[in-house]
Amino acid sequence: MEEVIELLKKQNKTISTMESCTGGYLANTITNVEGASQVFKFGAVTYANEFKIKMGVNKDIISKHSVYSTETAAEMSKNISKFTDSDIGIGITGELSFTKEKENNYVYVSIYEKAKDTFVNKKITLTNKLRSLNKEIIIGEIIEELKLILKK
User: Fold this and answer.
1) Which residues, other chains included, contact 64 with Cβ-Cβ below 8 Å and sequence gap of 6+?
2) Residues 114, 76 contacting (CB under 8 angstroms)
3) What is the C-alpha separation between 123 and 93, in angstroms, rounded?
4) How many domains does the chain have?
5) What is the DSSP letter of 129?
6) Burial (Cβ within 10 Å: 0-12, 13-18, ≥19) of residue 110
7) Domain span including residue 54
8) pTM greater than 0.85 (yes/no)
């Protein structure tokens, strides 16, 4: 994350997050870096759909595609960028719970770039039973994607 923060500083860009299943883990990872306050504007944990909608996510998108979808993650990323006037918005939604009937869980990540009005969307398959480990995997993938985006 240190490299991401430095790239954001050099490019004079800001970032905000809207997280569901990661419960603020991304915002925590960002704010663990000294100097992150220069680039990090806001982190929202919208665990309940009610608050995703209050933060601008279209309820029809959730109804049509499910809260666990690329479309919902994209709504989250764009709306948090708009709400905070950040250059980059990140939306994360998905499932981290395992049951005997369900061995794979999916998390949907969307990274929105305001200047280009573009999205990078990822569907991450998780196979670990530990929620904390799954959160680390998700954030690791986001960090790698942000580095690619910021080095273009």
Assistant:
1) 71
2) no
3) 10
4) 1
5) S
6) buried
7) 2-150
8) yes
Sign of the Cα torsion 76, 18, 6, 39 reads: positive
The string of pLDDT tens digits covering residues 124-148 is 988 888 889 999 999 999 999 999 9
At 8-24, the pLDDT tens digits run: 999 999 999 999 999 99
In this structure, what token pair is assigned to residue 139? 């954030």
Torsional sign, CA 45, 49, 54, 57: positive
CB 83 within 8 A of CB 56: yes
| φ, ψ of residue 113 in degrees (nearest 5) | -110, 115
CATH number at residue 13: 3.90.950.20
Phi, psi torsion values for 115, nearest 5 degrees? -60, -35
- The tokens of 56 are what? 């601008």
Helix axes 131-150, 2-10, angle to 10 degrees: 30
> Phi/psi of residue 34, each to 5°?
-60, 135
Q: How far apart are CA 142 and CA 131, in angstroms?
A: 17
Residue among 113, 133, 130 at smallest CA distance from 121: 113
User: Strands 88-94 and 15-19: what pairing?
Assistant: parallel
